[in-house]
Design a protein that fits this description.
- This protein is of the alpha/beta class.
- The protein is built from 13 helices and 13 strands.
Length: 381
């Protein structure tokens, strides 16, 4: 039996590499002699750099940058064998970089993501894959642009403070001092969402609350992003606000399109292509995927959706998702071809306990996968 294990991280608990490793350990006990193909993956959010490094034998490069609140930290980017750079915005501008009580929806900045791009250019990289999940920011990528040399000025010609809130006072975007290397670079945004920049499905309305924005702050951010989008169109000729993916990572998608000429592609599909997923599945008997929480948003391009869709396109074999917990609307994934969803806990453990014991719970859950009723008769057992 050949089993392909292609799973995302369990955020705040285990990296995608560790998730795949523990699932493989459980399956090895349950199916001795099975061929286990381990493919840690990500959707553009946390773990993207690590997944690319493992999949493509890339080199991890540390860089001093600034976090969403302007504090100096060490982040990493990945340089692939062909010289391309993989930038994970969560490394510099991610939600997990902020502690309890530190969420700053109006002032958090993507400046550090721009610094990562600049560091990679210093290393000679000119082709970029930018993963844009897990952000703490709603600044439309304005911080990233400023790190690359753009100036965002108010009516008096003074630089705006960092963050999305101050964009409502933006009067002029000056790109005269932008890094001269940018025109020679190409950018591809690896995103798991297709939200536009503003409005009911925009960056502030959909994702602002998880970054600490209350109802009034959501309204302020949405108005600021709407104003920002208009100026991108009329001053830079970049009418990007309504493009799918513009609202990714608090509008970083829009910023990358406008300032860097970026194209947007599914983060999961990008990594699946890189790791040779189609070839691995071509003669497989079972695919096991997973993520920390599966819910209605998973069908918007998250790892289990991407893995299931690609698998079913190639072969009609079972796909099972092992997950940390079930969220609202998780059953929608069955309509997209997923055969079974198996949580690692039966609900008797607290969330903290489940996260602390995620490794052993994953391994134990994996031991029972091949006996699932949903797979009965489909695995030749």
């Amino acid at each position: 039996m050949k089993i392909v294990i292609a799973a995302d991280s369990f955020k705040g608990s285990l990296s995608s590499a560790r998730v795949v490793e523990r699932i493989a350990a459980g399956l090895a006990q349950a199916v001795p002699g099975a061929e286990l193909v381990c493919l840690p993956i990500a959707d553009g959010g946390e773990g993207t750099v690590e997944a690319f490094a493992i999949a493509a034998n890339g080199a991890l490069c540390p860089a001093l940058v600034h976090d969403p609140l302007g504090r100096e930290i060490t982040a990493q980017y990945c340089v692939l064998p062909d010289g391309s750079a993989v930038i994970e915005m969560a490394q510099a501008s991610g939600l997990l970089l902020l502690g309890p009580g530190e969420l700053a929806p109006l002032s958090a900045s993507t400046y550090g993501t721009g610094e990562l791009i600049r560091r990679a250019m210093d290393r000679g990289c000119r082709k970029f894959i930018v993963g844009v999940g897990g952000s703490a920011t709603t600044d439309g990528g304005s911080g990233m642009a400023r790190a690359l040399g753009a100036e965002l000025l108010d009516d008096a010609g003074q630089p705006l403070p960092m963050g999305g809130g101050p964009l409502i006072r933006l009067a002029r975007i000056d790109c005269a001092r932008m890094d001269p290397r940018l025109p020679g670079c190409s950018f591809m945004v690896a995103s798991d969402v297709d939200n536009v920049l503003c409005g009911p499905t925009g960056a502030a309305a959909v994702y602002g609350p998880q970054k600490g924005a209350g109802p009034q702050e959501v309204r302020e951010l949405d108005a600021a992003l709407r104003h920002y989008g208009r100026l991108l169109a009329c001053q830079l000729g970049a009418d990007v606000a309504q493009r799918p993916g513009a609202g990714a990572a608090g509008g970083l998608g829009a910023g990358l399109m406008a300032f860097c000429g970026a194209q947007v592609r599914s983060g999961v599909d990008t990594i699946l292509d890189m790791i040779g997923f189609d070839q691995a599945v071509a003669d497989a008997d079972l695919v096991v995927t997973g993520e920390g929480r599966i819910d209605f948003q998973s069908a918007c391009g998250k790892v289990p959706y991407g893995v299931t869709r690609r698998t079913k396109r190639i072969r009609d074999i079972p796909v099972v998702a092992v997950v940390g917990c079930l969220g609202q609307g998780a059953e929608v994934m069955y309509r997209h071809g997923l055969d079974a969803i198996v949580p690692i806990s039966d609900g008797r453990l607290s969330l903290d306990e489940s996260m602390r014991r995620a490794g052993e719970l994953l391994e134990g859950t994996a031991r029972g996968l091949v006996s699932l009723p949903a797979l009965r008769g489909r695995l030749g057992r």
